[in-house]
Amino acid sequence: MIRLLALLLIATPATAADFVFCWQGDNGYRMEGRMTVPDDRLSQPLLTHDDVAAFFIQGFHDDIPIGSWDLSQLTPETSWNLSFDPHAMVFPTGGMHNSPEGQAWNAGGRADDCGDPGFGFNSGTNAQDLCVNNTWITDSMINRYTRFPVHEAGTGAPDCGGAPLLGALAEDKRPA
Question: Is residue 121 a contact partner of residue 23, using CB atoms and an 8 Å limit?
Fold first, then answer.
């Protein structure tokens, strides 16, 4: 009986939640994405790249695809930092790209290391921006504090604009 229960537990897939997001950069640049997180991780206050089971991003310029990246392309050399607040449903922004308040999705602090061909996203202390073919796309840059919302998949189109963070949290992060 115990063996049967153990086999059933092993054979039963863990449930997971799917999320979608859309980032609107400057000058016609946009990124859309999707990630999957095991349900048992969603009670944590902050999730990291280690908690994500699947992840995919695709970039556009004036609605024309310019590149994509997913976890199957992850190597030891890849810049890969993700922070996700599942309670506020946002990717924290404004801090160092490799910190809990930053993002480095196949693009490090200089956003020039996404591969060629390649695509990546960076949210650090300078800005939020894209990397295409190992080139930092400065025309895509927006304010580092721009809110980056996340939505449960199937709940409608993701917000692809965001607004600068308002309130004490954002003010505390801004340099004097």
Answer: yes
Rg over alpha carbons for the chain, rounded to the nearest Å, is 17
pLDDT band at 13 (very low <50, low <70, confident <90, very high): low
Please state the φ and ψ torsions of residue 46, each to the nearest 5 degrees: -145, 125
Sequence spans of domains, the chain: 16-160
> What is the enclosing helix (H) or strand (E) of 7?
helix 2-11
CA distances to 16, 31, 72, 97, 148 from 103, rounded to whole Å, are 22, 14, 18, 5, 11
Alpha carbon 163 to its chain's center: 17
Lowest mean pLDDT among 1-5, 62-66, 81-85, 166-170: 166-170
| Confidence at residue 7, expressed as pLDDT on a 0 to 100 scale | 43
Average pLDDT in the chain? 86
CA distance 34 to 125: 24
Collect all residues with Cβ–Cβ distance below 8 Å to 137 and sequence separation of at least 6: 25, 29, 111, 129, 130, 131
For residue 155, name the pLDDT band (cuts at 50, 70, 90): confident
Tokens of 169: 């949290």
